[in-house]
Structures are given as structure tokens and as C-alpha cells.
Amino acid sequence: MDALNEFRLILEKGGTDTHTACRLFDQFGEVSLEELPGTWRGKEFHTGHPMDGLLKRLNWYGKAFHDAENVDPLLFEGPTGNVFAVDPVPMMDSRKLIKAVGGKARMRKVLHRGKVSAAMIYDNLPIIDHFRKIEEGVLLGMMDEKTAEIPYFFILEKI
């Protein structure tokens, strides 16, 4: 079975394990920096990671790539449907959601797991989100947090 069909089956099933997610990530293609600018709707790709379900409960909306130096890594949707950027530092240390002023990350091409592909580097956290292309306008993201034992996976769909 090819990677795209396996990915679709996993979505229908509701999740997979970290090993399978890593294997699929490695099979998908590189992403150029030119493909990233714009707003992307996010959803979780469940692998049994401790963060599974957290972003959905917080009404995670996605990410916004403005240019190479300005990325809003966390967009959330408010109760009235308004979308706003959140500073990832207080959120990641479990304090609370605080609106961000200006981008809190940047994008670069990074060699990761044998491929050079677009990545988002957080300004103030030891985290890099690596991206692989599932198909046009759909990316699989792998959050590589320096202190985490396993990566966290998510999907981005370009709006």
C-alpha cells in the first residue's frame, strides 16, 4: 500500500502509533519554503502522544506563515469564530493562552530524517516543526521538541 492510501486509512481509523507515523513522514515529499506562506488549518494526527487531544480542546485553528522571519505558530479560534495568534511560551508551560504580538517563529529549510524540507523554528522554545507534503496543500507536521522522548504529529491544510 502506498503512503497516501495508508495515511487515509489511518485517518479513518482515528490514529496510529509513533513508529508508523515516523515511517509515513519519511515517505512523504519535501516542502519548499515558497509553499508555506498563507494560513493553514490544523488538526491532530493521533499517535498516543501525551499532547493528543490537547490542541483540539483549546480550539486550535492552525498556523499562519507570513514570511521567512514571521510565523504565527499557534492560531486559535475564539467562541465567536474570531481567529487569533497565541504566544506559544505560556501555553507550552501550561500557564494560559496569551495573545501574541507579531510572529513567534520563523521558517527555514532543515535536514531532518534524511530530507531537506521546510521547517518552522520557534523563537523562544526548543521546538522545530518539520513538514512533509502529503499532497498539494496538505502537510504532515512533526513537532520535534528537544526534551520530548517522542515527536508529536499534526496535519495542516492550506486555506
Order of helices and strands: HHEHEEEHEEEEE
Distance between the termini: 29 Å
Low confidence ranges: none
Q: Helix count?
A: 4
Strand content: 35-45%
Task: Give me the CATH fold name.
Answer: Lipocalin
Would you identify the CATH H-level superfamily?
GXWXG domain
What is the number of beta strands?
Answer: 9
InterPro entries: DUF4334 (IPR025568), GXWXG_dom (IPR025951)
Protein name: DUF4334 domain-containing protein
Domain DUF4334: 103-158
Organism: Planococcus halotolerans
How would you describe this protein?
The chain has a single domain (3-158), classed as Lipocalin, CATH 2.40.128.580. 19% of the residues lie in helices and 42% in strands. The protein is built from 4 helices and 9 strands, in the order H-H-E-H-E-E-E-H-E-E-E-E-E. Strands 4-3-2-1-9-8-7-6-5 form a 9-stranded antiparallel β-sheet. A hairpin with a 2-residue loop joins strand 2 and strand 3. The mean pLDDT is 92.
